[in-house]
């Protein structure tokens, strides 16, 4: 998978549809691994993922936010920001599963679900400028057979039910950091 992830203060929805996404990301923000410069309002993030040409389609893109709350507790929240197949999040903001095309008898899968590319511009709806935070992107593929499924077929094994045969591969970006109290240069 190839993943691009930028943070800034002025990304717009139209940016995700542009093919010069990296130019926009570096011009209007910072790349993964960097510190967000001071800004106004909530930070926005530009994330784009492209499946591996020989790999599985993409299920969803998530942004994971971590922070220390006012009581000193470590917190984390996962936001689904782009997903395939026209699914709709439920009242609990959870997406239904993408589906499963895995055929364990071979084993193999079909790219008839998911998407070859996904992207989004997302702004943190719970941003608190008083709290340090970090953000990273996680991209999840559709289900594919695990190595255990291949071994079961190759060696004609009858595996116990607790052995996982199907998984969803993931890609993670480096985080983008936000630190409060930094003043904008004038």
Topology, element by element:
Blueprint: E1 2-8, H1 21-28, E2 29-31, E3 44-50, E4 58-68, E5 74-83, E6 117-123, E7 133-141, E8 144-145, H2 147-154, E9 166-167, E10 170-172, E11 176-178
Output the keywords:
186 residues; mainly beta; 5-stranded antiparallel beta sheet; 4-stranded antiparallel beta sheet; 9% helix
Describe the structure in your own words.
- Helices cover 9% and strands 34% of the residues.
- The protein has helices at 21-28, 147-154; strands at residues 2-8, 29-31, 44-50, 58-68, 74-83, 117-123, 133-141, 144-145, 166-167, 170-172, 176-178.
- The strands form 3 sheets. Strands 4, 5, 7, 10 and 11 form a 5-stranded antiparallel beta sheet that branches. Strands 2-1-3-6 form a 4-stranded antiparallel beta sheet, with helices on one face. Strands 8-9 form a two-stranded antiparallel ribbon.
- The longest helix has 8 residues, at 21-28.
- The N and C termini lie far apart (40 Å).
- The mean pLDDT is 94.
């Amino acid at each position: 998978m190839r993943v691009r992830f930028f943070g800034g203060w002025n990304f717009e929805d139209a940016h995700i549809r542009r093919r010069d996404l990296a130019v926009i990301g570096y011009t209007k923000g910072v790349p993964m691994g960097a510190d967000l410069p001071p800004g106004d309002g909530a930070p926005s993030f530009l994330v784009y993922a492209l499946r591996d040409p020989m790999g599985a389609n993409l299920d969803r893109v998530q942004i994971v936010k971590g922070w220390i709350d006012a009581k000193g507790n470590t917190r984390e929240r996962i936001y689904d920001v782009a997903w395939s197949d026209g699914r709709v999040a439920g009242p609990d903001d959870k997406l239904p599963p993408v589906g499963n095309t895995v055929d364990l008898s071979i084993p193999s899968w079909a790219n008839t679900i998911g998407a070859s590319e996904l992207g989004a511009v997302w702004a943190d709806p719970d941003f608190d400028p008083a709290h340090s935070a970090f953000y990273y992107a996680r991209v999840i593929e559709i289900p594919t057979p695990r190595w255990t499924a291949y071994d079961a077929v190759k060696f004609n094994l009858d595996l116990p039910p607790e052995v996982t045969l199907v998984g969803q591969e993931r890609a993670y970006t480096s985080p983008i950091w936000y630190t409060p109290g930094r003043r904008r240069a004038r």
